[in-house]
Amino acid sequence: MPADPALDPPRAHGAPLCGGRLRAEPEDFLVEELLGFEAAGTGQHVLLKVRKRNANTQWIARELARACACRPGDVGYAGLKDRRAVAMQWFTVPQSRLSPNDWVGMGSAEYEVLEAHRHSRKLPRGALAGNRFVIRVRDAEIDDASLASRLEVIGTRGVPNYFGPQRFGRGGANLKRLSGLEDPRALRPDERGFILSAARSLIFNAVLAERVADGSWERLEPGDLANLDGSGSHFGVDALDETLAARCAGLDIHPTGPLWGGGSPPGGGRVLELEQRVAAGLGAACELVTRAGMEQERRSLRLAPRDLRWGREAESIVVEFRLGRGAYATTVLREIFALDADYDESST
Q1: Quick check: is 219 in a domain?
Q2: How far apart are CA 140 and CA 67, in angstroms?
Q3: Are 189 and 68 within one domain?
């Protein structure tokens, strides 16, 4: 099964401007979850804002469960966050003998609870508006004019919304697991989600790679399903007009690609033909997710970074931006820098 569309897809804005080192220290990669809602103020749960450093999300959840004497599964969080990073992440725990005031300041060398509020329900996966990033790239040798020009292009046109290589495991390990795998029931419970996600992501990246190659990743075509920026809503494009073209150019709407599942993709015309052709070349991955009972869904082909800024610190470049949920910061960085792909990043 070919891995190149997944692990090293084509760039949209030209070759990287320079190399650089990412995550030399956890403080080089700062991420803050943006919930998009306020704590309820009442309820049977406590919403916690946690600062974690060099620790993974599941470990933090277990520590919080131990503190309030609940099961780890009773701890809610919106998504996984990077281990080698400093992350501001939200969790919920069931109400216990600990008051919100008792939680504030609790922690260890790896984490600290910064805020605690009464809340009405367990925090579900995906319950985020997005994430804000402040990322330091060390040893990046580039002049200001070139960097400013590339960032202006990215801010104006966005970047391809690829799933990052970390989605496929170190060295594509999750993709290798797909080889010869026909029945999803053969997957262990602890690996099922990772393998099925890798299969879907492979198909999506392969479709997006084709549309980057032909230049259609950032424009709508008849037969596309258009995504409203920042939402899960989409609508069919039967014909193009000036209004749709202007909204797409303004990053208000984007073309989408398939998150594969049972049945045929819902698009039409050349778009449908392209998606079916790419999927036919990845038949094992398509068959696996279909047998697992997954349904056809859509994901934006384009990612629009917001509040994009940059600056210099000694021999480093510091880049700041905000992304919607489900997007990878490294898909933005790879359009600027050539970075070591051996990193661990979560998108949610």
Answers
A1: yes
A2: 43
A3: no
Rounded to whole angstroms, how far apart are CA atoms 292 and 286? 10
CATH label of the domain that carries residue 285: 3.30.2340.10
Residues 6+ apart with CB under 8 A from 152: none
List pLDDT tens digits, range 164-204.
888 888 778 888 888 778 788 888 888 888 899 999 999 99
Give one DSSP letter per residue of 142-190, joined into a string.
--HHHHHHHHHHHHHH-EE-PPPGGGG-GGGHHHHHHTT---GGGS-HH
Number of domains in the chain: 2
Pairing of strands 130-138, 18-22: antiparallel
pLDDT one-digit tens code per residue, 109-149: 999 999 999 999 999 998 999 999 999 999 999 999 999 99
- Quick check: 119 and 108 in contact, CB under 8 A? no
pLDDT tens digits, 256-288 = 999 999 988 899 999 999 999 999 999 999 999
Please report whether residue 320 resides in a domain. no
Which residues pair with residue 96 across a beta bridge?
A: none
Q: Which residues are catalytic?
A: 82
